[in-house]
Design a protein that fits this description.
There is one protein chain. The protein folds into 2 domains: 100 residues, Serine-tRNA synthetase, tRNA binding domain (Helix Hairpins), CATH 1.10.287.40; 303 residues, 2-Layer Sandwich (BirA Bifunctional Protein, domain 2). The protein is 41% helix and 21% strand. The protein is built from 14 helices and 18 strands. Strands 1-11-12-13-16-10-9-4 form an 8-stranded mixed β-sheet.
Length: 426
């Protein structure tokens, strides 16, 4: 969430950002009003405590001098001070709770270069990579390829777990494991520490990293223990330093997380979202950076470069787009997406999301670093490296052969015993 001092000192910056997003100012004004009420209640309670302390001294002096009438008069004057202080404390707590609950719903302030637009159709092109391969035959979509080769068993996945769950089999399962290892090795080679996070989080930690009001519908809750299955390793890896004061010498913290991810993926989706493109469980290799605020925009470009270099090394064609105001969520201040070309679907579709969240998550998580002037919020950034199911789709559709087999990207062959082609299961 945004620092409360921005509401107190730079509220017009938040209003201007809401104007760019096409949002009303009501919530901003309500936060400011509740903050003023909270501060006034605290001030008034402090004044009453001072009056009570002064009265106590007056009563003691009156009793010491033997003037019991004066002591009783003072006691009568302050008889209700305790109750009034309790009322103000209750008002203060209520205003603070409502203020900060509302702050959690107010989105981050966007970077000045975020393009303005009402939806994803207004995202702008950042760069193009690779070339569209001329297959020389009518391309199949990944649904056809997994069915004809027996690489995915969706019907049995649905039988044991429900729709959008699946069994990954044979060479495609080997390729998926190769992607995991390759992605982790690639980022460890660039100074990232490998971390395997817990696959569940409690509500407090989850509220620190995302807007649950916006995100909770796609998450799986675990009852009766009140945990959530993680939707991405970004969430536990960012939250792992919550409530900590980080020494400046530790920054930047650069992590690569590998984990299963779980999403309900509710709602209607198109034909190209079937198969293993939009599923309830998938594996993701994720980049995380926790850094000094002065360096976060440089690290945002570094995260993008890592993703670009990795996808270039796979020999795939894709584009990078700048996400516009109407397609941005609550948490990020700027975001890039990598969209792979899927010849079977005839469209570009998202495979990587790369975000700078500035201090928005850190304020929620109470995660700061030590400075000579006091403690200051760190900046947090995240980017997909490889979401393996989507990478598999891009590889299958771009590297498909006329007989339905699929060529293995050269950089992945050493992880598969130098196998060059994915063969049918039977």
């Amino acid at each position: 969430m945004l620092d409360i001092n921005i509401f107190r000192e730079h509220a017009d910056d938040i209003r201007a950002d809401h104007d760019r997003r096409g949002l009303p100012h009501d919530a901003i004004d309500e936060v400011i009003s509740l903050d003023e009420q909270w501060r006034k209640a605290r001030y008034d309670a402090d004044q009453l405590r001072k009056a009570r302390n002064e009265a106590a001294r007056g009563i003691a002096e009156a009793k010491k001098s033997g003037n019991s009438a004066a002591a009783e008069a003072i006691m009568a004057e302050v008889a209700d001070i305790g109750a009034r202080i309790d009322e103000l404390a209750e008002l203060s707590d209520d205003c603070l709770t409502r203020r900060d609950s509302l702050r959690m719903s107010i989105p981050n302030i966007l970077h000045a270069d975020v393009p303005i637009g009402e939806d994803d159709q207004k995202n702008t092109l950042h760069s193009m990579h690779g070339e569209k391969t001329e297959l020389g035959f009518e391309p199949r979509n990944h649904n056809d390829l997994i069915e004809m080769n027996g690489w995915v068993d969706q019907s049995r996945g649905a039988k044991v777990a429900g729709s959008r769950f699946y069994f990954l089999q044979g060479d495609l399962a080997r390729l998926e494991m190769a992607l995991q290892q390759y992605g982790a090795d690639f980022l460890m080679g660039r100074g990232y520490t490998l971390v395997q996070p817990p696959l569940m989080m409690n509500r407090e930690a989850y509220e620190g990293v995302t807007d649950l009001g916006d995100f909770e519908t796609v998450m799986y809750g675990i009852e009766p223990d009140k945990y959530y299955l993680i939707a991405t390793s970004e969430h536990p890896l960012t939250a792992m330093r919550m409530d900590e004061i980080i020494e400046p010498s530790e920054l930047p913290i650069k992590l690569v997380g590998v984990s299963a991810c779980f999403r309900r993926e509710v709602g209607a989706h198109g034909l190209s979202d079937r198969g293993i493109w939009r599923v309830h469980q998938f594996t993701k290799v994720e980049q995380i950076v926790i850094c000094h605020p002065e360096n976060s925009w440089d690290y945002h470009e570094d995260l993008l470069s890592n993703a670009v270099d990795m996808w270039d090394s796979l020999g795939l064609h894709y584009r990078v787009v700048n996400i516009c105001t109407g397609d941005m969520g609550t948490v990020a201040a700027r975001k890039y997406d990598l969209e792979a070309w899927l010849p079977g679907a005839g469209d570009y579709k998202e495979v990587v999301s790369c975000s700078n969240c500035t201090d928005y998550q850190a304020n929620r998580l109470r995660m700061r670093f030590r400075t000579t002037e006091g403690n200051e919020a760190v900046h947090t950034l995240n980017s997909t490296a490889i979401a393996t199911s989507r990478a598999l789709v891009a590889i299958m559709e771009q590297n498909q052969m006329e007989d339905g087999r699929v060529s293995v990207p050269k950089v992945l062959r050493p992880y598969m015993g130098n196998q060059k082609v994915l063969e049918p299961l039977h």
